[in-house]
Specification:
124 residues, mainly alpha, two-stranded parallel ribbon, 4 helices, 8% strand, globular
Length: 124
């Protein structure tokens, strides 16, 4: 999914018109290197630390498909499967085998799982 199709919470905040494009947060090269090697990269920190913006920067640079799921409403592993299934287009979205098949079909995909409990950003 092009980042323009990403959920509003995964898009970098728009810059005020007089300032030009929003600056990218300082990126730690470790997550990028891990992702390029096909590994899992964790961005972990306190609330309001800018990690969702950092994930948006990684997503913008990702050469393949990007899928995103917000996990704030998840209370069980079944909830997590359902949210990832919805993000990947799995049918049915709550069935583990269908989610695995959808992920395989996407190839090298970046899946952003955000547990931030933040209000949705308004559409620009």
């Amino acid at each position: 999914m092009p980042l323009t199709d990403a959920p509003p919470w995964l898009r970098p905040p728009p810059a005020p018109p007089e300032q030009g494009p929003a600056p990218a947060p300082d990126a730690d090269p470790a997550p990028t290197a891990a992702l390029q090697a096909g590994e899992v990269a964790w961005l972990v920190g306190p609330a309001d630390s800018g990690l969702t913006s950092a994930a948006a920067v990684l997503a913008q640079a990702w050469p393949g498909p990007v899928r995103a799921a917000r996990l704030t409403s998840c209370r069980t592993s079944a909830d997590l499967v359902l949210m990832v299934g919805e993000a990947t287009g799995a049918l049915p979205p709550g069935e583990e085998g269908a989610v695995a098949a959808a992920l395989r079909a996407l190839g090298p995909v970046l899946v952003v799982l955000d547990d931030a409990d933040l209000p949705e950003r308004a559409e620009a």
